[in-house]
Amino acid sequence: MANALDKDLSQVEGIEAATHNLSRTLAAPGLALVFLLAVGVWVAFAFGQGPTTYVIVIGAVIAGYMALNVGANDVANNMGPAVGSRAISMTGALIIAAIFEAAGALLAGGDVVSTVARDLLTVPDMDSRSFVMVMMSALLASALWVNLATFIGAPVSTTHAVVGGVVGAGIMAAGFSVVAWPVIGSIAASWVISPVMGGIVAAIFLVIVRATITTRLDKITAARLWVPIFVAVMTGVFAMYLATKGLSRVWKPGPAVTLLLGALFAGLGWIVAMPWVRKKSLHMENRKKHVAALFRLPLVFAAALLSFAHGANDVANAIGPLAAVVTSLETGHSEIAGVALPFWVLAIGAVGLSLGLALFGPKLIKTVGEHITRLNEIRAYCAALSAAVTVLIASALGMPVSSTHIAVGAIFGVGFLREHISRRDMEGSAVPTNSRFVDPDTLNATPEQALANMRKTERRRLVRRQHVYSIAAAWVVTVPAAAALSAVVYLGMNLFIG
């Protein structure tokens, strides 16, 4: 009797656990669906009854869906290093990223919209209806592709997806001549340059930190001098970006004023960091692991800076085509002189980014932060600051670069530098093969010895090669896949919407 009761209780507990897991699995898609329904109702109420209201409502819902996917996939690049280095918890990363992503989208999210929405296609010969269908097809196709990539855990570029979507639908609507190929060429060049730049800059930062702090005999004294300088550089860069981009709608300072603001905030950052670093290092051991802890707070600020830059730069992937649709419908033609950015369009992008991050972002954050290479606070700080600086420069130039390429390139740069240093150190400390203690002919005399030597070589590879290959493959596939899917979506829209 007791055994039967215990068996029944265990079955009940199993059912409860399965029900709880199922409810957690369905909660995120359910909240996303509620958000999309709210977007549709809000836009329908705002525009009222009109001949084009239903098109704007559909476009807004698709833009919201794309914003969710941008938040779920791309934001992992911002917070991955901080979470992977254990500098911040997943919950803290989600909260910080949500705030700064929304702030970047709302305050500085306009400059790259014109490139995504207007400059990719030469549209004088395209009627307004075809242009609207192209933009909506591009949005839906790129959102579907990024959704699939997020589901399988691949950190693809949402910029690649939306550009591919616009090109694919544009070709289907008006042929190859409608695509502004010089613009596509410049964007493609930036896709190659940006990850290399991110990796190089991150490696340079790590070399500087090693030379100034971690390889010194007295690491504590060196950290008291140099960590405030790194904080000053970071706060100065953020201040200059905010002055030129974030406040551009209410205040546009000249270059001299911008540089002055950067210098002032850099000084303020140094003043604040000096006593904090000194206090934190009072009872700290003179070890690299303990000194690395001084970079935790700067790393959080760097991650926040990167999130702000991402919100400003990549919100265009979600709302750029929507803004073009609204402007085209209001003006009645496809050759738009400028893309209007009403607050409700920016709000959809900002809320969608934050919500997508919170609901679906943790999986990709772990992939970027933990599965590429091992990160500590210093290496994560170098990668995050490098990615932030590169994205800020790109956003200032109005280029829709891939933040995925930049951030992942920075992580690879740090990992490959460590790998190079590790191999150099191991080769320098290894026993020479011509030594009388080692017979070079016996190094691989048996299969077991060959396997052991191969494993030693593999351990020197601090960057997981399978992720290099898989991420590179995802980058290559995204553009043609999104273009092909967008062409199919365009045909379907023409068939069913007519």
TrEMBL record:
GO cellular component: membrane
UniProt entry keywords in alphabetical sequence: Membrane, Phosphate transport, Transmembrane, Transmembrane helix, Transport
InterPro entries given in the database record: Phos_transporter (IPR001204)
Membrane spanning residue stretches: 26-48, 54-75, 87-110, 130-154, 161-184, 190-213, 225-244, 256-273, 293-312, 336-360, 380-398, 404-421, 468-493
Record-level Gene Ontology MF annotations: phosphate transmembrane transporter activity
GO biological process: phosphate ion transmembrane transport
Keyword Coiled coil part of the UniProt annotation: no
Superkingdom of the organism of origin: Bacteria
Subcellular location: Membrane
Topology class, membrane: Multi-pass membrane protein
Family in the record: Belongs to the inorganic phosphate transporter (PiT) (TC 2.A.20) family.
Protein name: Phosphate transporter
Origin species: Devosia crocina
